Amino acid sequence: MKFRMDREALADAVAWTARSLPSRPTVPVLAGLLLTVDGDTLTVSGFDYEVSARAEMAIDAGDPGAALVSGRLLAEITRSLPAQPVQFATEGTRVVLTCGTTRFALPTLPVDDYPTLPAMPEPAGSLESDVFAAAVAQVALAAGRDDTLPVLTGVRLEIEGDALTLAATDRYRLAVRQLSWQPLQPGLSTTALVPARTLADTAKALATGPEVVLSLAIGTVGEGMIGFTGAGRRTTTRLLDGEFPKYRSLLPVESPASALVTANHLVEAVKRVALVAPRSSPIRLSFAAGEVVLEAGGGDDAQATESLEASYEGEPMTIAFNPGYLLDGLGAIDSDVARLALTTPAKPAVITGKEPESTYRYLLMPVRLAG
Prior knowledge:
With 371 residues, the protein is of the alpha+beta class.
């Protein structure tokens, strides 16, 4: 095998594919990236039996063949190379990578021992890549990170015709985004629970292309798979098993109180006030006509207070939130003005953009205040 190509394109593809490699592979070959040359195309592949990633690129010139090399090492090397064309060739049991006056010789792993990547499921539909990436970013931040509760580490995709809904929760907050897409099968109705980390990485990587094609294979327990294709890349991942929480019942039908606050002003105020909040301590937001007062700390500890102008409707109310979770929600809305819909100090608040019928909703559980 032999090829020559642009360093930046190679480094980008290797870095993206290497992200799917396991940190502790069960067998040595799973730590490798498979490089295959066929005609004027180079394919870089990675697979750990759960997630597969594949990137295709045009090469200047090449001889057909395949080589399996350490993925993380190759990613580090290609990232550090000078901005010159890269030549890659196999020599016996090694591959030689040359870039300008820089030369690396790397041992290869046995290609015959590498598992066959799964076939891409049947396409189900497509949507604009930038819209998909933005929606995933808004929702995935609310997914759990506790692997002992795998269901909460996923993003639930709900498909009803041309409507696609994404939802994620870690029990302390819930993010929901609704968007339109183009299904290939009219009246398609299904759900899928996708690992949030894989979905977020994939959506971000595919945003460089015009659209993302979503492929689905919903089988029996343990056999579900989803695939994404775009920008010369494609990835598959097994779906998570389990019952996702019935989150729709958590979203309040109506809220007796609501506040409109300039989003970036509120973000900066939360950051400042939270400086005196000990780890995991909440900040308090007191709403009244015309303003919201943010407070943190108290007693013999450091204290902070800041007042912001706000348009508020409802009875005066004080409610407390985890500042990190609050900032996540405020940062995710696509609006200059944040709307906080409130019920009681003990019930969740819903953060949206200025318009209450926003396609994005971020539900945040309050922190119970002593007394």
